[in-house]
Structure formats: structure tokens, C-alpha cells
Here is the input.
Amino acid sequence: MNIALIGSGGREHALCQKIYESKLSKNIICLPGNAGTNKIAVNINIDIFNFKKVLRILRFYKIDLVIVGPEEPLVKGIVDFLTKNKIKVFGPNKYASKLEGSKAFMKNLCKINHIPTADYKICKNKKHVLNFLSKHSCPLVVKADGLAAGKGVTVCKTKKQIINISNEIFNGKFKSSNKIVLEEFLEGEEASYFIIVDKNTFKFFGTAQDHKRVGENDTGPNTGGMGAYSPASIINKEVENKIINKIIKPTLKALKNKNTFYRGFLYVGLMIKNNEPYLIEYNIRMGDPECQAILPRLKTDLLKIIVNTVNDNLKKTSINWKKKKSMTIVLCSKGYPGKYSSNKIIKNIYKLKLKKNEFIYHAGTKVLENNVFSNGGRVLNITSLGNNLLHVRKKIINLILKLNWKHGFFRRDIGWREINKNESYQRKIQR
Ligand code: AMP
Ligand code: GLY
Here is the structure.
């Protein structure tokens, strides 16, 4: 099959690698891809939001299946457009994409279907905000309704901060949002649960925890994600059953009741407290960098799973996983998520010798005359697998040190929560 993959991040390089390894794939094109996908696919640098142009490229390359990595083209309706033009595509339609594209839509769906989530109010003006503030105390969370490239959510400690941020959003800070969701702050531990969904059924697609803050000990501003590990042990069988029965099933049923359906990856972002899961957010795609930690654990052919999903045959597909644990650390440009410079050469990248179970996924990179240059805030993702997360992390850090990229930085404490849990467990059983 000829495959087109849309997107240019580390998630897409990880997807591309798995598709490349599949016996079912023939040619792969990436729109637009990065320096990593360039080695295993043909990168085509076009505007992915110009759907007509995308369609022309897909026809020219005789593409049999399109796989969409990021949320924005999905929210803008690329699946509906391609389906109408008789191109097979993996990802949710425009209506189902509102689960991520509109926080107000997602929260209302939760309320109507009794899905556990933080109490909230959709506010269209200052009066609505003041009304919610008169009934709830801080901390509270302000969320821009629409997509905001990870910058739309602020946890606020004071009412003044809430009013300022709400005003900024009402005044057009994010083009995608003229309203906000104001909600209660949930305490607990965050974790993500992934599924793959077709018209008839859904299957487990891994668990992970990521680290969103830029600094060690989870401090500093939010980023797209500084690292992740999989699986997340906080999602035990009991929690998993609750996630499925209280959150996932009612959501998929709600879409069916609207005469539509979900097809694609679904990322369920959760807060877990005392073995009770609460939905924080839905993402209509794999997580980045969670995908780079999860996919190396997948034993089954990814393309076979995706083809079966697009044909609504997921029920018959068994999905198998390696028992090993995995971790991804993100190497960023210095200054990220604030100002940083791009176009810095990454000299040693092709000299690094990777052992079995070690992977480098490119994110913000590009190739110029056979050299790799940085091209974004999150530049490379280094993943490794093993039985012990502390050892896995050491292996990754050694690789990053060998790369010796002066313009980059990374967090050395990815997985601290899981590693501390394991260590205290080890101490307990040794006593
Ligand atoms: P979201 O874009 O909705 O995932 O929010 C980004 C991050 O903000 C989440 O990963 C959480 O760390 C935090 N967050 C969002 N909503 C809440 C909430 N109601 N309570 C606590 N933290 C939250
Ligand atoms: N790592 C968080 C996300 O993909 O949204």
C-alpha cells in the first residue's frame, strides 16, 4: 500500500517508522515530515491546511491510505474532505474531533452523560466569570475553548489572575476561542489512557504519563511535553475498568446517539485520585511524546491495525505488547518554551550507534545538504526500553550526552514518580 502521513513531529516519525517496518507498506510520503522521516519516506513540504493541494498530491502519488498525526487538520475537517473525495483516511471526522477542538463541547457531553470530570462553567463574558467565582474558591483552571497549541490552559491561584486571563481570551488572544471554560482544580495524579476506535468497537492502545513542565521536579511553564514513560502503573485493573465504563463507553455512545461515530486514536487524559478516574481532556490523536514511548512496545503490525480500523474490522484484530517498560526524553532547543533559535546543526546525530531497543525520533529537525539542523523547540526524542526505568533513563541520558548538542537541554528526572514508587517497593520487599 502507498501511505501518506500528515504531520512533522516526533509522534509522526515514530508512526512512520512502524509503517515503514510493516510488510503491508510500499511507498510512504510525509506531509511535511522532518529530517527523520526523510530517511524512510518522501517528505513533501506543503501547507497541510490547503486540503485541495493535499488531495492533488495524494492522487499524484496514488495513495491508498492517509494517516493523520496532529489534531489541527482533524479539527478543521480533513477526514470529511478526503472521505468525500473517496480517499481512505484514519482519524476522527470533524464532529467527533470537537472532543478536543472545543472544550465546551467536551464538558457539555460529560455533563449530559454523567461522565466524571471537574465541575465547570462555560463563560462568554465577565459576568459569567464573576458568577462562577462567587460560588467557587481558588485554585481554579481557565481554559480557552478552542485549540491553543497547548497554551490555552492556566491553573490560577487568585481571582484577579482568573479575571485577567479571561479578559485576554475574550479580547481575542486565541483566534480559535471567544469563550472560556472555567473549572474546578482536580487534585491527584495525572495519567493517559489510549485506545484505537472503529465504528463498532475499541481496543486498548497503551498507557503513559508525560511531564508537561519545562523544569525538573515538574516546575516552570508548560510545554508540549518534556518526556514520557509507559506503562503508567497508577492505571491498575480497577481504575481501567472505571475508565472504560464511566468515561469511554458513555462518550462513544453519545456520539452514536448523534448519528455519528469515532474512528482513530483517542487519548483520554485523566486525573486519578483514590483509584477514581476523572476526565481532564480528550485528545483525538496519539500524544506527543507519549506515542514515542508507546509504539516501541507494540508487537503487532501497526499498519495492519490501522487498515483493520479504517475497514471497521478492529474486533478481529488482536493487539500485542512487549512486557518491557519504555521512556522517551525530549531534547529541546535552549530557551524553549520561550524564545529559542533554530537552524543549529546537530553534528553527531549520524555517528550515534544505537543498540537494540534504543530509538531516536526526530521532531523539530530538517535536512539541508545532508546535514541535520534544528527546526523547532522540541528537537529530538530519545527512547529506550528495558525492565527497569531507572536503567532505561540512564541509557537515554548517556545517548544524549554522546550527542553533545550544545544548543539543547533536557530533563534528567523523567519518570521520577514511577521510579520512586519502584524504589520504595524494592526497599519494602527487601526488609
Ligand atoms: P488540558 O489542555 O485540558 O490537558 O490541560 C493541560 C494541563 O492542565 C493538564 O495536563 C493538567 O495538568 C492541567 N489541568 C487541566 N485541567 C485541570 C483541572 N481541572 N484540575 C487540575 N489540573 C488541570
Ligand atoms: N503530551 C501531551 C499531548 O500530546 O497533548
User: Anything to note?
Assistant: The chain has a mean pLDDT of 94. The domain at 2-92 is CATH 3.40.50.20 (Rossmann fold). The pocket of glycine (ligand 2) is lined by residues 210, 225, 283, 287-288, 290 (CB under 6 Å).
